[in-house]
Structure formats: structure tokens, C-alpha cells
């Protein structure tokens, strides 16, 4: 962080309130000034002292504390971002109706900064027509309402309505601060297929050929598109234990062949394909059923592993669309990790790859030590099939994802692809 931001964390009265403590810690450790504004019912689940210790700021629920400072107006006016987590069905309803009967709802009325709601409630409440209408109203007014996760709820119940993990909420909160504006909800009804992470090509039961991809950029793409309203399926290779994005269907695979099969299965239903996975170019011609043993003789020759090419999944998808096999597909996005060489620089090789692959957009990263792979920040270029080129500014991979999704949205709006 280069600039300290003022963030209000609103906490409504639900069992998921305990997760807000982790959120407050993460936002504080990121360098922000955080003030927690809970509801009275939230304090039945977690005490004010916890939030005061984590944020370093006082915690109040009513408008009658420190009246001389006019907190019910000032807190919202001075905020750079308001995050409400958890946002219960009751809190969403009160926000929609413009209530100001406690400090949190008054803050929501006076805030002119981005507002992020992270809902948490039982599945029946989330899908109730009243809640559906309230969420739509808040989004129409410019607020960002996250899609909840699916999983274990209170008691034995399970389903949609689980609060996303604190890391996911803080990631999206930081994205709003980086963008400087709200995240549009503009992809409703769009079906997206995203691939992420590296593939592993087995040599024997112990060893494999892999790469340095962490999957962070692909996960960021899936996360941003889901929160902009898309129906997202994520095909995930080796992703180093990343948290599956909320509101996303995740299919886990291992090898390039498995990824190719998964893309072939899901691509016909998709409007957008984002090939962010680092797919191996080669695999062993034969996979040994037993571990290859190291000889006790130090002069013995090392085993030779013969390689064969893997399928080019991105080029195959472009061909399938051209042949009419993907009638719904309107945008195909490729990723290229490049280095310069004696023949040309990164962009020289990227332009050649875009022409060779035939995709609509190509995201280009220059790779090297602490660049592109296994890091949280990224930069690069976005090349379009029509010849347009733009730089992707340095920032979080989530910010880069949002800029790429802006470009995808422009293609969809133009009817291209």
C-alpha cells in the first residue's frame, strides 16, 4: 500500500460475525486505518473489546456516543471504503429502506465512497424474493454486493449463503480502493470458463514435470467475473492451496490432458473462455509405473526421458469456434508469459503468438525473478486481435484481472467475438 486509507467495517448480527475479526486484522495489517461499527446484535456474538484491540479505534453502536463529534454523519463522510461483513438479510433490508436507527445504517446513508456488502444468511433467506430484490436495488444504486459462498451454515444446514473467507473479502475491498470506483455488476447471464494454475505431467509415481504458476492470476479472473455477475466455472490445476472463489464452480485437474478434456466438456456452454492456466508444452512419452531408482554407481548414466508435445488447448478452442463447434463463444482470452531473446523483445514474441493463436485478447507478462509467477502483484500488456495494445499498470493481480474483464465486457457489449 502506498497510501493509508480509512475503512469502516460494519458488522451485522449473525453467527459469521466472528470472521469479521480476521477481516479487521487483515485490513489493518495492510496499512489501512480501520474503524469497526457493529450493530447491537453483532455484539452478542463478539465483544467490542475484540474489535477495539484489533483496530486500535473505539467501537460504538449508537448515535448518542461522542455526540459532539457528530459520528452518525462524520464517520461515513470521511471514509474511503465501507465494508459490511457479515451483511445479514435484516441489514440489507434496512440499508435499502434508508433506515438510520443505529450508527451503522446512519454511516451507510452518509457514505459517498464505495460500499461493499458481504452477505451471510441461510440459503432460504438468500433466495427469498425480498432479499433478491434488496440485493438488486443495492447493486442498482452502485453498491457492491458479493455473491456468498456455499458450504456449511449454522447447525447441520449447508448451501449458498455462507460468508466468504476474510481473505476474499479483503482482496475485493483492496480492489475497490485500487480501482477508485465501484465494481460494476455487468456480466449477469454470461457463462465464463476460466483455467488457472500449472499442470503436472507425471514421470513416475513420485516425479512430474511442472512449472512455477501459482494460479493466482486465474483465480483473480474467476473471482472478479463472478462478482460482476457471471456464471463461472474454474478449471484449476496446481494452485498451491488457494481458496476457491465464492460463487464459482471449481473443477480440479492435474495434467494437460485432463485440462484439455475439461475444457472440451465445458466450453460449448460458455460465452467467454479465459485460458490463464500454464499448460505444459511437453509431457513424458511414457509414464513409469515404478519409481525411477538412482543407481548406486556414481558413474552410471542418468535416465533419458523422451518428451512429446501436449495439445494446444487455446489454439484448439479457437479452431473449434471457427468450425462452428462453440456457437455460444463470444470472447477467447489467452495468456502469455514471455521473455525477450536475440530475435526480439517480449512484445515482439507476444504479437507473433497472438497472430498464431487467433484469440481475441492476449494478456502478456514479462517473466523473471519475482515477476509474474508466485507473486501477488503483476503488470503487462493487453493485445487485441484488432491491433489495439494497452499497458496493464502495476498492481495487484486482482486489479489486473478487473482491467482485463473491463476489456472482455467491451467485446461482449459490442457483439464481437
- Which sequence of strands runs across the widest sheet? 12-11-8-13-16-17-18-19
Low-confidence stretches: none
Q: What is the residue-averaged pLDDT?
A: 91
Using only C-alpha atoms, the radius of gyration works out to: 24 Å
| Main structural class | alpha/beta
* Strand fraction: 15-25%
End-to-end separation in angstroms reads: 37 Å
Which overall shape is indicated by the principal axes computed on the Cα atoms? globular
CATH homologous superfamily heading of the largest domain: CoaB-like
Number of domains: 2
Q: Note the total helix count.
A: 13
Please identify, by name, the CATH architecture of the largest domain.
Answer: 3-Layer(aba) Sandwich
CATH class of the largest domain: Alpha Beta
Find the count of extended strands (DSSP E, 2+ residues).
19
CATH topology group of the largest domain: Rossmann fold
Helix content: 25-40%
Largest sheet: 8 strands, mixed
Cofactor: Mg(2+); FMN
Pathway: Cofactor biosynthesis; coenzyme A biosynthesis; CoA from (R)-pantothenate: step 2/5; Cofactor biosynthesis; coenzyme A biosynthesis; CoA from (R)-pantothenate: step 3/5
Keywords: Decarboxylase, Flavoprotein, FMN, Ligase, Lyase, Magnesium, Metal-binding, Multifunctional enzyme
Pfam families: DFP (PF04127), Flavoprotein (PF02441)
